[in-house]
From TrEMBL:
Cofactor or coenzyme needed: pyridoxal 5'-phosphate
Keywords: Cytoplasm, Isomerase, Porphyrin biosynthesis, Pyridoxal phosphate
Catalytic reactions of this protein: (S)-4-amino-5-oxopentanoate = 5-aminolevulinate
One Pfam family here: Aminotran_3
PANTHER family: GLUTAMATE-1-SEMIALDEHYDE 2,1-AMINOMUTASE, GLUTAMATE-1-SEMIALDEHYDE 2,1-AMINOMUTASE 1, CHLOROPLASTIC-RELATED
Quaternary assembly: Homodimer.
PTM annotation (N6-(pyridoxal phosphate)lysine): residues: K270
Identification of the protein by name: Glutamate-1-semialdehyde 2,1-aminomutase
HAMAP family registered for this protein in UniProt: HemL_aminotrans_3 (MF_00375)
EC number from the UniProt entry: 5.4.3.8
Enzyme type, top EC level: isomerase
Length: 434
């Protein structure tokens, strides 16, 4: 028995499914999950001592590569000064300032520990600001695992083929209206019927939890106009895209494309913590100031703005200059083109979709015209992806263990790492097509 198999067996005896987050269990691709013991630059090393070129990057945070010496030094230095004070620290303000420098419409920022908390609080703020209850979300968009946001939430639920979660009271689920992404007519219809009662529309800045599904040109501007017309707030969830799809997140990508859209609230996570638990709610000062202690909307956290976690986030963002984003964009070009070429050569129908530096590959004849929404994303050939995933893993490349995820590159993916990916692709593509 390999160390990975042994560890998985032991884990399953004490941890439900052997994992602390469902997608890690390899449920949809089969086989034994790898237990990682260390990571450095573009590589992760498992308990059997094998290393893999990593295309998960901790689901985003490892923007500058794993265990970057400057990030580690910042964490060690902060840890040496104390792990947590339950009081304010200077670095929290520095991190908030760095976020606002990159995304100036984030006038005020509140730090929390997870993306789930950030979106949960953003919704409470929207309800507090409008005095309304209903929330509109898009099918296939994931905003964390709070009760009201688990309806047709893509990603982990899609991997397990679940429409939602058990344990969510019907009365809470009824407050969430789920609409097809990129579908203007469906949104108009929902607002025509319930407009007076809708507190907010929450959207991933670019869909990236059903594979990568960017907003159609003009769709985010349309969302802004529609919500404003009906007195509802627009919440842009940049937990995944923020400071990853580009230096100013997907907000910046859209702006460069000529769509200057100012959501009322934004949420950040992943990269802002550089691999430790930091997330943020941000937005218009007038709305953000409704948070306690200034306003009536309550939110709190023992570990919010934790000094060690904030040090990791600040160090990561300070390293993430234009050269880092250019490098990641170049690596995304290289890998996505090589994957597409190998799949074409093997006769495997597919489509590559991009959102800034993020991309994913959808497998199967049913999706080759493009994936604008969740319904289409579910038509992909998950069995072909599973075969591809395992062939890549055998060749030393760790892809996301689900067809419903983005592929993540880092600035540490050097030529050697890219070459290892490229050389593994032809055999994996043939396995997918078999
Ligand atoms: N929002 C988006 C867009 C996400 O991708 C995620 C996590 O993948 C979350 C929210 C939830 O963040 P967390 O896992 O930190 O709770």
């Amino acid at each position: 028995m390999s160390r990975n198999e042994d560890l998985f067996e032991r884990a399953r005896a004490v941890i439900p499914g052997g994992v602390n987050s469902p997608v890690r269990a390899f449920g949809s691709v089969g086989g034994t999950p790898r237990f990682f013991v260390s990571a450095s630059g573009p590589l992760v090393t498992d308990a059997d001592g094998r290393d893999y070129v990593d295309l998960v990057a901790s689901w985003g945070p490892a923007l500058v590569g794993h265990a970057h010496p400057e990030v580690i030094a910042a964490v060690v230095e902060a840890a040496g000064r104390g792990l947590s004070f339950g009081a304010s620290t200077p670095a929290e303000t520095e991190l908030a300032e760095e976020i606002r420098r990159r995304v100036p419409i984030a006038e005020k920022i509140r730090l929390v520990s997870t993306g789930t908390e950030a979106t949960m609080t953003a919704i409470r703020l929207a309800r507090g600001a409008t005095g309304r209850d209903l929330l509109v979300k898009f099918a296939g968009h994931y905003h964390g695992h709070s009760d009201g946001l688990l309806a047709q939430a893509g990603s982990g639920l899609a991997t397990l083929a679940l429409p939602g979660s058990a344990g969510v009271p019907a009365a809470i689920a009824a407050q969430t209206l789920v609409v097809r992404y990129n579908d203007r007519a469906a949104l108009e219809a929902v607002f025509a019927e319930h407009g007076e009662r809708i507190a907010a529309v929450i959207t991933e800045a670019a869909g990236a939890n059903m594979g990568v599904v960017p907003p159609a040109p003009g769709f985010t501007s349309f969302l802004r106009e529609l919500t404003r017309r009906h007195g509802a707030l627009l919440i842009s969830d940049e937990v995944l895209t923020g400071f990853r799809s580009g230096p100013s997140g997907y907000w910046g990508v859209l702006r460069e494309a000529g769509e200057d859209v100012a959501p009322d609230l934004l949420t950040f996570g992943k990269v802002v913590g550089g691999g430790l638990p930091v997330a943020a709610i941000a937005g218009r000062a007038e709305v953000m100031d409704l948070l306690a202690p200034l306003g009536p909307v309550y939110q709190a956290g023992t570990l919010s703005g934790n000094p060690v976690a904030v040090a990791a986030g600040l160090a990561t963002l300070r390293l993430a200059d234009d050269a880092v984003y250019a490098r990641i964009a170049g690596a995304a070009d290289t890998v996505s083109r090589a994957a597409s070429a190998a799949l074409t050569e093997a006769g495997m129908p597919h489509v590559v979709q991009r959102a800034g530096t993020l991309f994913s590959v959808f497998f199967g004849a049913a999706v080759i015209d493009g994936v604008p929404d969740y319904e289409t994303a579910t038509l992909q050939d998950a069995a072909a992806y599973a075969a591809f995933f395992h062939a890549m893993l055998d060749a030393g490349v760790s892809l996301p263990p689900s067809a419903f995820e983005a592929w993540f590159l880092t600035a540490a993916h050097d030529d050697a790492a890219l070459e290892r990916i490229i050389s593994a692709l032809p055999a994996a593509a043939r396995a997918a097509a078999a």
